[in-house]
Specification:
Largest sheet of chain C: 2 strands, antiparallel
Number of strands of chain A: 10
Largest interface: A-C, 70 and 68 residues
Number of helices of chain A: 14
Oligomer: heterotrimer
Strand order of the largest sheet of chain C: 1-2
Helix content of chain A: 40-55%
Number of strands of chain C: 2
Chains: A alpha/beta (341), B mainly alpha (146), C mainly alpha (496)
Strand content of chain A: 15-25%
Strand content of chain C: under 5%
CATH topology of the largest domain in chain A: D-Maltodextrin-Binding Protein, domain 2
Strand order of the largest sheet of chain A: 2-1-3-10-4
Number of domains of chain C: 1
CATH class of the largest domain in chain A: Alpha Beta
Structural class of chain C: mainly alpha
């Protein structure tokens, strides 16, 4: 494994327990394919995977898994770098305006960058300054409810009805300024319900509050509440995606429960390079990530974290265009709700 | 003493300006305090404290501010750190670090020129080795690849 | 007993050559990381995370955990010897620790810091062993009102730390609140005091503030006088604490352990808050508070014990519930997730080997760290023979790297420099800088918890009294404030 000296020291003296993993049959040998695409003199130094969120979080975990497999297939050294601050804003601005487009910086981003670009960038950069090279995975927002207390056992429809009958009493955890808030906005606007919003810094904190009895409904991703689910402390209510999730088949989608098609809120993770990266390096990086994404081990690891693969994006022939569609739909939402003039 | 009065006046001004800004952020919102409340309270406290300190008759501080050689040394340290912040994105850590080390070592004249150069290069090399190679943290590289 | 069985099984898991090696290596790295100013366990863990892919889950977690608490051992070294904190959690150790060093008692200070860390760490693990599920169940009930009350208590304790002019101290606290407000308001997503700057929208980095206020400021002050060396190496008499030192500090160690452990459990607590509060408590309780700031050994023993106990405390929510209470434990959680393990309430039952392996490793790790740190005292003492004119540039270089390591953003270097200059000026004018830092640390959670509490309560502020724990903590805070007024009325300390 190619890493810092210290890392090599650690591994060398420690017994490596990993079994030799069989190379998956992927048609033409992908490593050879990648070698063919490799530009001359590239890379001569480690490639940075920039993550704009703190180490250990969902995006970081996804990026590190990706880096591990990209290293495996390409043989290049990848270093994951957390450029944190401002709920991602600092890192996004760095990637869009400061990062050198020389192929040594790859951004592991989530679609939350669109919100930053449209609402907070103040015209200094647009999401199109970041060119997508490969789709990674998606994570849909899920509502979870308690297993104790007055609202246990209620379905999502019942809870929304209760929020309508007794406005301002049902406490829901939100994260202001992003999709957690938008989903609640949508539900309230379409059903006339009124929740009592309790702000948190992230979905995980809200789920903690739910387990502790401090809120009645929490919103988060599967990886954030799976442990509690298995211990019977929370109960999944509904998911904001187009289709039901494989790992929670009994959980309905918001669309089917409320008869809409707009309740779609997920984190879409994808890799980008800054605009202006030379075409051959961009193609090489794109191929490397895409080949890593086909590794069945990586797919399995992602599925274990509760992520799923959006069929439209996974099979996309023009990722920039397809992602752009999602982005523009979000822009529409902002216009409709008055957040964007 | 002059300086202390200036500082106290500064606190009052800072408090006032911040209070005005905090007011513009909004004090009370739909569910209790809004963005501006805590900053407003803090700003008022700063203003009040500055006022109390300004009006107090006896100065407690008898310290001197640096002059001459001492001031030179202090400015030297500040300059070294500023060079680091300005130069690192363009020249990379290694080169800027070496320059900064030179400034810091030479700001105290007793370190000889050759000694300074040697120490600067050695220490930067050691730091780069420790962090970049041993621990794996990427320090910015300059246009020369290091 | 069930827990003892688990613990024995855990020892069985960890007493293999590989795992012991990893525990030792982690302790070594942790100590090193603690000594280096600015580089903290978070940066080190983020860097070494990829390594854990090739290790077994137990091995990887043992290594990462030992780096975390190892850093709490090493952090006091530069604090005591150079008055420059190695960690944000070692800032208070500078206050009395460095004074002790100036009096030629650096060895005793370093020794007590190491031993206090060991006692606290071990006690913390013992409590973890037997009471983890109980504590976890209680910790999860801690909601915004309780957090708010706890932060208020911390803030009140801060007021005790103010040495010198009370007015100036309160001003520093208010300034700390203001500086903490820079960035995005968590509660409603609005930007505050950012003036359009992307860098400011991220808020001001704690590490940059700490290194600036205590590292750069210290260097500026020393360079002004052109000291030969801050602590004369020859004056280090006796590298070990005396019996008198033991007598004075053992109680502080125990108090610090208890306080630190509890504060490690709650979000927004953690080693930094624990060390500050322990210092404040020691000063409050002491029969001779005027000794503090002049080399009182309790001022080293208490906080150093507290920050180590806080590590053990903070591991309980993450291992027993899957809930991280600070960024480091969030990273440990991520490390487990990457290995395909989902920590949660069932973690102990599903992976007893992992849970008990980690717990057992903490006993071993603390021993390793004691063995590492005590002999190192002699080594560090020798380091002081380096003339200051050579030492300070190296320390500054390391500080630069350390500060940069937080966010990889050059802007933090400017913050560090800015706070360094400001700290220098303020120190000259007799302002105490520690209250600024603790206010800066506490303010965000205090404000957030209050607004969350009000948001979740249909009846408004009443919720703070309705919840028993919150009400109790607030009552204690109020009582302390009252006592504080009465005390300062009697004792001529500071000036009003």
């Amino acid at each position: 494994m190619k890493h810092s000296t210290l890392a090599r020291l650690i591994v060398a003296c420690a017994v490596v327990a990993a079994a030799v993993t069989p190379v998956a049959a992927q048609g033409a040998d992908p490593k050879a394919e990648l070698a063919r695409l490799k530009p001359k003199d590239f890379p001569t130094q480690p490639i940075e995977f920039t993550v704009v969120y703190p180490a250990g979080g969902g995006m970081d975990v996804a990026a590190r898994l990706l880096a591990k497999y990209v290293e495996k297939w390409s043989g290049d050294r990848i270093i994951v770098n957390n450029r944190t601050g401002g709920a991602g804003m600092v890192g996004h601005a760095y990637l869009a305006t400061q990062a050198k487009p020389d192929g040594y910086t790859v951004g592991a981003l989530a679609n939350l960058v669109w919100g930053d670009a449209m609402l907070r960038a103040q015209g200094r950069w647009a999401y199109t300054d970041l060119e997508p090279i490969a789709y990674v995975n998606s994570d849909a927002l899920i509502w979870v409810g308690p297993t104790e207390g007055p609202y246990k056992g209620m379905s999502v429809k019942d809870i929304v009805q209760a929020a309508k009958d007794k406005p301002g009493t049902i406490r829901i955890a939100t994260v202001p300024g992003s999709m957690w808030e938008y989903l609640v906005d949508q539900i309230e606007a379409n059903s006339g319900a009124k929740f009592l919003r309790v702000p948190f810094q992230g979905g995980g904190a809200g789920i903690t509050a739910l387990v502790g009895g401090n809120v009645d409904v929490a919103q988060g991703f599967y990886s954030e509440f799976r442990g509690h689910l298995e211990a019977g402390k929370v109960r999944p209510l509904a998911v904001a995606s187009a289709a039901r999730m494989d790992f929670l088949k009994d959980m309905p989608t918001f669309n089917e429960t409320f008869g809409g098609s707009d309740y779609l809120w997920q984190v879409i993770r994808y890799a980008i390079v800054p605009k202006g990266t030379p075409a051959d390096r961009k193609a090489y990086l794109a191929a490397a990530v895409q080949i890593a994404m086909k590794d069945p081990e990586l797919v399995a690891e992602y599925e274990k974290t509760g992520a799923y693969f959006d069929p439209k994006l996974a099979g996309s022939k023009d990722l920039a265009h397809d992602l752009g569609e999602y982005a523009e739909r979000e822009r529409e939402f902002y216009r409709k709700t008055g957040r964007l003039k | 003493m002059m300086f202390e009065r200036a500082l106290n006046a500064f606190w009052i001004l800072l408090g006032a300006a911040t209070a005005a800004y905090a007011w513009s952020l909004g004090i009370v919102g739909p569910s209790g305090p809004d963005s501006g409340l805590f900053p407003l309270i803090a700003a008022i406290i700063i203003m009040a404290a500055g006022l109390i300190l300004l009006l107090r008759p006896n100065p407690l501080v008898a310290s001197q501010f640096p002059r001459g050689a001492a001031l030179g040394r202090i400015l030297g340290v500040i300059a070294g750190l500023a060079v680091m912040a300005i130069g690192m994105p363009y020249l990379g850590f290694a080169v800027t670090g070496a320059i900064t080390m030179m400034i810091l070592l030479r700001t105290v004249e007793r370190t000889s020129l050759s000694g300074s150069i040697a120490l600067a290069l050695a220490s930067v090399a050691a730091v780069v080795w420790l962090f970049d190679h041993m621990l794996g943290m990427v320090l910015p590289r300059g246009p020369w690849g290091f | 007993m069930h827990e003892l069985e688990g613990l024995m099984a855990g020892f069985g898991v960890i007493l293999t050559a590989q795992n012991l090696y990893l525990c030792f290596l982690g302790s070594l790295i942790g100590t090193l990381v603690g000594v280096l100013p600015g580089v903290g366990p978070l940066a080190a863990l983020a860097l070494l995370l990829p390594v854990t892919f090739t290790l077994s889950p137990v091995g990887g977690m043992v290594m990462l955990a030992s780096i975390f608490y190892g850093a709490m051992y090493g952090g006091s070294t530069t604090s005591i010897l150079l008055n420059i904190p190695g960690e944000a959690a070692s800032v208070v150790t500078c206050i009395d620790g460095h004074q002790m060093a100036r009096q030629g008692r650096a060895g005793a200070a370093l020794g007590i810091a190491a031993i206090g860390s060991f006692i606290a760490g071990t006690l913390g693990v013992i409590v973890m062993t037997f009471f983890a599920p109980l504590i976890a169940a209680a910790a999860i009930r801690f909601g915004p009102p309780e957090n708010f009350a706890l932060m208020v208590l911390g803030l009140v304790c801060t007021l005790f730390m103010i040495s010198g002019s009370t007015v100036k101290g309160v001003l520093m606290v208010a300034l700390g609140f203001l500086t903490a407000a820079v960035g995005i308001d968590v509660v409603n997503g609005h930007e505050r005091f950012t003036f359009g700057s992307v860098n400011l929208s991220g808020g001001i980095e704690l590490l940059a503030v700490v290194i600036g206020l205590f590292g750069v400021t210290e260097v500026l002050a020393n360079v002004e006088e052109m000291v030969q060396s801050t602590v004369l190496a020859e004056r280090i008499r006796g590298l070990w604490p005396t019996l008198a030192d033991w007598r004075d500090s053992w109680r502080a160690m125990l108090r610090g352990s208890g306080l630190g452990f509890v504060l490690g459990l709650v979000p927004g607590g953690g080693p930094v808050t624990a060390s500050f509060m322990s210092y404040a408590v020691e000063r409050r309780i002491s029969a001779h508070p005027e000794r503090f700031g002049k080399g009182a050994i309790e001022g080293v023993a208490g906080p150093e014990a507290a920050n180590n106990a806080a590590v053990a405390g903070s591991l309980i929510p993450v291992l027993s519930l899957g809930i991280p209470s600070n960024p480091v434990t969030a990273l440990l959680l991520g490390a487990l997730v990457i290995q395909g393990i989902q920590p949660g309430p069932l973690f102990v039952a599903q992976r007893p080997d992992l849970f008990w392996g980690i717990v057992a490793s903490m006993y071993v790790g603390n021993v390793f760290l004691l063995m590492l740190n005590l002999p190192l005292v002699g080594l560090w003492a020798q380091l002081l023979r380096i003339p200051y004119r050579v030492l300070f540039p190296i320390v500054l270089l390391l500080s630069i790297v350390g500060t940069y390591s937080a966010n990889k953003n050059v802007f933090d270097l400017w913050v560090m420099l800015g706070f360094g200059i400001a700290g220098y000026v303020l120190r000259k004018l007799d302002y105490d800088l520690a209250p600024f830092v603790i206010a800066f640390v506490l303010a965000p959670l205090l404000e957030q918890s209050l607004r969350q509490s009000l948001a979740m309560s249909p009846d408004g502020a009443v919720i703070l009294i309705q919840r028993p724990v919150a009400a109790l903590l607030l009552a204690v805070s109020a009582a302390i404030v009252v006592l504080m007024f009465r005390r300062t009325a009697r004792i001529p300390g500071g000036d009003q």
